[in-house]
Amino acid sequence: MVEKRSLHLMGQGEELEPLEFSVTPELNQQYLYAEEDFNPRYIEEGDGGKPWVHPGVLLNMSNWTRSPSYYLNPDWGSIHTSDETRFINPASLGKRLKVTWKITELIEKRERPWQTMDILVTDEDGKEILQRKGIGTFVWSEPK
Q1: pTM to 2 decimal places
Q2: Is residue 2 part of a domain?
Q3: For 139, phi and psi rounded to 5 degrees?
Q4: Whole-number CA gyration radius for the chain
Q5: What letter would DSSP give residue 64?
Q6: Number of domains present in the structure of the chain
Q7: In a domain, 1, yes or no
């Protein structure tokens, strides 16, 4: 069994365990209702084939807390501070998607560790769907 390491202790070049998932029409529909976005491209089959996955689903599922290996030591918290996101291709409902996370930069600022992470979503055919550069920091509480 591999010992879990807190994200704040991981180094540059290290990767979180990838996540693979498929988006069902029901999950997509939950986002459509939440966003009040009923564009036909997310519901009906179009010229390109199957309906598209809503971008909100892709953003939610590519957050680093979704990695199966995501872990923080007790009394530590993670703060997502900024993001640069590029939607490259639409994702089709029912296709298997894979998210990968790689730590690309570590700095200390204001006595806190900060990480920059490259995030990539691809589909089962290897087509790039989404690229993100996420930046986050960590907070902790003093032991009692």
Answers
A1: 0.91
A2: no
A3: -130, 160
A4: 17
A5: G
A6: 1
A7: no
